[in-house]
Amino acid sequence: MKSIIISLNLLFFCACSFNANSGTIQKAEKSYLKFIGNSDGVSILIDDDNSFKLADTTKNKGMVYQLRHGKHKLKVFRNNNLISERIIFLEDNGTMEIMIQWIK
Predict the structure, then answer these.
(1) I need a labelling partner for 85 at 20 to 30 A (CA). Which of 7, 17, 29, 46 fits?
(2) 93 occurs within a structural domain
(3) How many domains does the chain have?
(4) What is the phi/psi pair of residue 23, to 5°?
(5) Which residue segment(s) compose the domain that 69 sits in?
């Protein structure tokens, strides 16, 4: 009887300490757009509600902007003139390069 109680207690303590530090790590769902090319006077409109102007990419070797993954509608304007419009699909934890034309 004593051996059964000791065995159960030993089993209980071993079970409590086993896998105490296990868990699942899930990466954040982030995707990135990298704009390269001539950014003079360029502004970007994403999904018809998120608009921003690009910094000077010639000095920074491309600017990276974070988005959620999935389907997005992208419009590129230079001096308020539409120069590119496309639908893009971003994968999770991926980076897509968007080339901006070198128009002078």
Answers:
(1) 29
(2) yes
(3) 1
(4) 180, 180
(5) 28-100
pLDDT at 12 over 70: no
Which string of DSSP letters, residue by residue, matches 6-62? HHHHHHHHHHHHTTTT---------EEEEEEE--TTEEEEETTTEEEEPP-HHHHT-
pLDDT digits (tens, 9 = 90+) for 15-57: 655 555 666 776 777 899 888 888 888 899 999 888 888 876 5
Task: Output the domain CATH number for residue 72.
Answer: 2.60.40.1120
Residue whose C-alpha is closest to residue 102's, from 40, 52, 59? 40
Q: Has residue 20 been placed in a domain?
A: no
Q: How far is CA 90 from the centre of its chain?
A: 8
The one-letter amino acid at 72: H
- pTM higher than the cut 0.85: no
**The amino acid at 23:** G
Structure tokens at 14: 């071993």
Name 43's bridge partners: 53, 77
Q: How far apart are CA 56 and CA 34, in angstroms?
A: 13
